[in-house]
From TrEMBL:
<dbReference type="InterPro" id="IPR005950">
    <property type="entry name" value="ModA"/>
</dbReference>
<dbReference type="GO" id="GO:0015689">
    <property type="term" value="P:molybdate ion transport"/>
</dbReference>
<dbReference type="Pfam" id="PF13531">
    <property type="entry name" value="SBP_bac_11"/>
</dbReference>
<dbReference type="GO" id="GO:0030973">
    <property type="term" value="F:molybdate ion binding"/>
</dbReference>
<comment type="similarity">
    <text>Belongs to the bacterial solute-binding protein ModA family.</text>
</comment>
<protein>
    <submittedName>
        <fullName>Molybdenum ABC transporter substrate-binding protein</fullName>
    </submittedName>
</protein>
<keyword id="KW-0732">Signal</keyword>
<dbReference type="InterPro" id="IPR050682">
    <property type="entry name" value="ModA/WtpA"/>
</dbReference>
<keyword id="KW-0479">Metal-binding</keyword>
<dbReference type="GO" id="GO:0046872">
    <property type="term" value="F:metal ion binding"/>
</dbReference>
Length: 267
């Protein structure tokens, strides 16, 4: 028969018992902390793999954000977007291997040599928008004294800046409008200048014109004969294996929901 130990009668044994219990509690806490750490280390890559990062040209901010929100609701998969001009989003794609998709004008995306494939998303349309309180019915009216400053996106870094420049030249208005043209970074900046009244008119895409509707004057869609066709595409970066989440996004972009969003945004 085992004999019970009376710790009250032995201070030394009592101290040993307390030390043992304390050591066991410390070990249990450390073991729990280690388990939590292992769980975090295992779970974090899974969460990262279940997200999608898209880089897009700034002129398509509104439809891209709508696409991402619709994708989240439809699939339950997290997605984020970064915006900029072609050089900025190209740099992001080269430096960050998580960026697999770029959205923008194919004529600017393709020369980078980054892509294995393109999916056509829509057609870009050049629009002339006036500031609130001003109106016109033809591009020729920009020669009037009422229009002193006309904003245009960067001619070489943006497709719509190049299209506007091309259109003005084809319609033989380049010399008359040259003193009035104010070149800015991109389409969103032109939109901001128009709505703030800093310029009398500006060249944007139809997507931007729809986004700022109600805060402007006239909206004149320019004839597509005065500039080369603009194809909006989803480019998939080559030499990168798609995760399940990225494959879902690629399939989503080819579906009816994505097409409805693009159409509603003038693309």
């Amino acid at each position: 028969m085992l004999n019970a130990v009376n710790y009250e009668e032995s201070p030394a044994n009592l101290n040993q018992y307390r030390a043992l219990r304390s050591s066991r509690r410390l070990f249990a806490r450390n073991l729990l902390g280690l388990a939590s750490m292992v769980t975090m280390l295992v779970a974090t890559p899974v969460r990262a793999a279940e997200s999608v990062l898209v880089a897009a040209m700034g002129g398509y901010r509104k439809p891209v954000l709508e696409l991402i929100e619709a994708f989240r609701k439809e699939t339950g998969t997290e997605a984020q977007a970064a915006f900029g001009h072609i050089k900025q989003i190209e740099t992001q794609a080269r430096q960050n291997r998580e960026v697999v998709f770029l959205i923008g004008d194919k004529s600017l995306l393709e020369p980078t040599g980054l892509f294995s494939s393109f999916e056509r998303l829509g057609t870009g349309r050049l629009v002339l928008v006036t500031s609130k309180g001003k109106s016109l019915s033809s591009l020729d009216e920009l020669k009037n004294t009422a229009f002193k400053r006309v904003a245009i996106p960067h001619r070489t870094r943006t497709v719509f800046g190049g299209a506007a420049d091309e259109c003005v030249k084809r319609l033989h208005l380049a010399d008359a409008l040259a003193p009035k043209l104010l070149e800015v970074e991109g389409v969103p900046q032109v939109g901001s200048y128009i709505t703030s009244g800093e310029v009398d008119a500006g060249f944007v895409n139809k997507t931007e014109a729809l986004a700022i509707a109600g805060r402007t004057g006239s909206v004149l869609e320019l004839p597509q004969s005065c500039y080369d066709p603009i194809e909006i595409s989803l480019g998939t970066v080559k030499d990168r294996a798609l995760t399940e989440a990225q494959s879902r996004f690629q399939a989503f972009m080819q579906g009816d929901t994505a097409r409805r969003i693009m159409t509603a945004n003038g693309l």
